[in-house]
Amino acid sequence: MTRHPSHGLNLYADWNGGTSYGQIGQIKDWTGPGLSRDSNDVSDHDIADFMRVFVAGLTDPGECSFDVNLDPHDSEHLGTGGTGMFGSMQADPSVLNAFKVELPGIVGGTLTMTFDGFVNAWEPSAPVGGSLSGSVGIKVSGAPSMAVT
Fold first, then answer.
1. pLDDT of 48-74, one tens digit each?
2. Using an 8 Å Cβ cutoff, are 33 and 101 in contact?
3. Distance between CA atoms of 147 and 112, rounded to whole angstroms?
4. I need a surface site. Which of 35, 58, 67, 114 has the fewest CB within 10 A?
């Protein structure tokens, strides 16, 4: 079985929902999105074996979370007016942003995931014995796409 390194992940965002992506640099740890599916109970009084019956429901595209070495001079980190991770928290909540994640080093190329979503969590941190950092959450909206290119 081939093992694939996760080092080198690149995250891009288009704060206007189009195709003009800017890179969000200094990503540390990345998780997600974690897809999940509802299970709907369709049991009724006609079941002879007294076992519940389920059908698959809607899929929740999940959330992504990551930590960054926070750069206060990077507009992708602390943008204003609806741009950047911090600025998008202050933007029109009806506007979705476009995101692209690239994982290089996959056999056959780069794994690329694209999705729409919005920043739903942004928390800076300034520990006494550490570096300026931030934790960010992105709620995915709609179906993400994935391809090896």
1. 899 999 999 999 999 999 998 888 777
2. no
3. 5
4. 58
Q: What is the pTM of this model?
A: 0.84
Tell me, what DSSP letter sits at residue 17? S
Q: What is the pLDDT of residue 103?
A: 87
Instruction: State how far the Cα of 118 lies from the Cα of 37, in Å rounded to an integer.
Output: 20
Tally Cβ neighbours within 10 Å of residue 139: 18
The reply to whether CATH 3.30.70 applies to domain 10-34+56-148 is no
Which pairing describes strands 63-69 and 97-106: parallel, antiparallel, or unpaired? unpaired
Domain residue ranges in the chain: 10-34+56-148
Distance of CA 90 to the CA centre of its chain: 18
| 63-69 and 133-148 beta bridge pairing | antiparallel
For residue 81 the two structure tokens come to: 């007016």
Q: How far apart are CA 144 and CA 25, in angstroms?
A: 22
H/E/C letters for each residue in 38-66? EEEECCCCCCCCCCCCEEEEEEECCEEEE
Count CA atoms closer than 13 A to 146's CA, side-chain side. 8
